[in-house]
User: Fold Sulfotransferase from Labrus bergylta.
Amino acid sequence: MLFKQQALLRQKLFVLGSLAIGSVLYLVARVGTLDRLQPICPIESRLPPPEPEQIPLRTLQFKRGLLHELRKGNATKEQIRLHNLVQQLPRAIIIGVRKGGTRALLEMLNLHPAVVKASQEIHFFDNDKNYARGIDWYREKMPFSFPHQITIEKSPAYFITEEVPERIFKMNSSIKLLIIVREPTTRAVSDYTQVLEGKERKNKTYHKFEKLAIDSNTCEVNTKYKAVRTSIYTKHLERWLKYFPVEQFHIVDGDRLITDPLPELQLVERFLNLPSRISQYNLYFNATRGFYCLRFNIVFNKCLAGSKGRIHPEVDLSVVTKLQKFFHPFNQKFYQITGRTFNWP
Ligand code: A3P
Assistant:
């Protein structure tokens, strides 16, 4: 009985084996014939390379991977040459405002396959020593990118530095300028909180916000305090408007970027003439952080560093009200100039 079963099994194995070998032989023969029958596609009948706008997302993701390797310093000179990678001057700059959400905006725009960010704040136009190094020095600070991509840098000090508008104008008079703003009093407190943290790290004491923001002699708002001055957006913008028409600016609502970033990013995509590519998939709310975080793909996501989203100290309500009243007329002017209105008090 056992002998009979073993013979049957051997027979089955033999049949299966023969079938498998037969199939392999058939496939080898078939592929060989196909190779001979189908002539290699002649160059002239091949499809032309796609236009930059038509490059499929997957290709761009591959390119992103390559750019990532480059940033890590793993890509070779040969790869740079082969893929036509270049260091381009920025075609758009986030010029400010400090504590408006400049980092979040840059990182979120970098989700777009046609955008490449300069990771560090370069401080080329606001720092005389850097500026004296010349435009080639600036270009060398830029990340590698594909020619169709646009490079964006952010240095929030640009917005408030006297010399910067003229210097940027000399580099590129048609550059696109992004300004992200928050309700001015909140921004001032955020600014203060950052400085306070720096002092505490060095074990230094620091004044309370109220003492800095209000002049103790006059009991009025202290306009000499930098955190207050920076929040007078219209004053700074007016300097920029001596060089650039208002159409070259786009105002981002930094408060909405915190609570609902996608619509703000879509407005920026449009301003930069980019196809809409950033989607809700790329942004997810992280309850632990209390902020939206970034999802590049199924494996790679990140939140901003802990230095973004600090807890603000509580500020005396009368001081808050005084500041809000102080900023009010400047805000009205800002809305009028920019054509963007906010619900600021
Ligand atoms: P706070 O620290 O006051 O909350 P900047 O990058 O210009 O310094 O701005 C910092 C601010 O960006 C933070 O201010 C934070 O509120 C805001 N922000 C906006 N979107 C954010 C995000 N997704 N993650 C962390 N912070 C974000």
Remarks:
- DSSP finds 14 helices and ten strands in the chain.
- Strands lie at 86-87, 92-96, 115-117, 144-145, 150-154, 176-181, 249-253, 283-286, 291-295, 301-302.
- The longest strand covers residues 176-181.
